[in-house]
């Protein structure tokens, strides 16, 4: 059994800068709240400005800490990701933490799988590459938010970004598999180039996030929205607990680069945050290299060490 880990175990973060995508709600909001409580200046990179401003007001009313900043980021648009990274880097030449948290799940329709891959992986790839110089300057940590659903994902090295035709939840699993593959290959390349930047992955287990409750407005169905909301409310762990794997991956110096952090309990649904295993596909080096290179090509980006 893993030893308990909570925010009290994390170091003081005064003077540090943390960028969190999708920080206006759910796991992203709890992650931002925790980082701010420890003293970090949190940059909330979100698509919806009104929701982000409301979240910032809630944070300022509920606890002490530096005033969070908002930067517009639409991960479905590669150019938006580049622009957001540029704006943040201009304001913050050094970035200590990048939490790639935002995501969408279970979208229906013919373009649903492609939209999921763009938002969950490719937008984050463009955003991350744009922030690498600022992360390098600080010796920063990146955390990619994955999911235990990655075990349902299906990707082929011959065309690693192709998930069209997959059912909505399989497609979601494939995007989370892609996130893990990208993180593990990025770790390999960062080590090889002796970069000061390090990367880890994390998953929240079964948490009361808003992700599973997406409805028709986000491409889901009314049924999936109702069931996701009901299941999360009555069976999922609180979002504060769901955010702990992400926070431990970012803040615990004992978690090595390239690690994957999640709940230790049965099926990794609940429990103390600890290092966990990934699927055979997620640790396939051939698939990882193919996915990594295809991702960079898709967003017209270059990895610094290449």
Automatic annotation (TrEMBL):
GO molecular function: oxidoreductase activity
InterPro entries in the record: NAD(P)-bd_dom_sf (IPR036291), SDR_fam (IPR002347)
Keywords on record: Oxidoreductase
UniProt protein name: Unannotated protein
């Amino acid at each position: 059994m893993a030893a308990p880990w909570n925010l009290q175990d994390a170091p003081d973060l005064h003077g540090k800068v943390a960028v969190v995508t999708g920080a206006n709600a759910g796991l992203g909001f709890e992650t931002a709240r925790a980082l701010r409580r420890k003293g970090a200046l949190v940059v909330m990179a979100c698509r919806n400005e009104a929701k982000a401003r409301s979240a910032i007001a809630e944070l300022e009313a509920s606890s002490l800490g530096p005033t969070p900043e908002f930067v517009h980021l639409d991960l479905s648009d590669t150019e938006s990701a580049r622009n957001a990274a540029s704006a943040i880097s201009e304001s913050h030449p050094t970035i200590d933490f990048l939490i790639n948290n935002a995501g969408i799940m279970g979208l229906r329709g013919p373009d649903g799988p492609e939209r999921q891959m763009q938002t969950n992986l490719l937008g984050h790839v463009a955003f991350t590459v744009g922030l690498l110089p600022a992360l390098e300057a600080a010796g920063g940590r990146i955390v990619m938010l994955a999911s235990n659903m990655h075990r349902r994902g299906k990707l082929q090295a011959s065309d690693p970004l192709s998930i069209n035709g997959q059912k909505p939840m399989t497609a979601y699993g494939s995007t989370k598999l892609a996130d893990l593959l990208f993180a593990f290959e990025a770790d390999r390349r960062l080590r090889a180039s002796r970069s000061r930047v390090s990367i880890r992955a994390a998953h929240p287990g079964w948490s009361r996030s808003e992700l599973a409750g997406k409805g028709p407005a986000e491409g889901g169905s009314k049924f999936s929205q109702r069931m996701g909301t009901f299941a999360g409310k009555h069976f999922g762990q609180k979002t504060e607990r769901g955010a702990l794997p992400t926070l431990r991956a970012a803040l615990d110096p004992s978690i090595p680069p390239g690690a994957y952090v999640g709940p230790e309990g049965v099926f990794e649904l609940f429990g103390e945050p600890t290092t966990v295993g990934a699927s055979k596909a997620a640790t396939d080096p051939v698939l990882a290299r193919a996915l990594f290179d295809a991702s960079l090509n898709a967003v017209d980006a270059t990895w610094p060490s290449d």
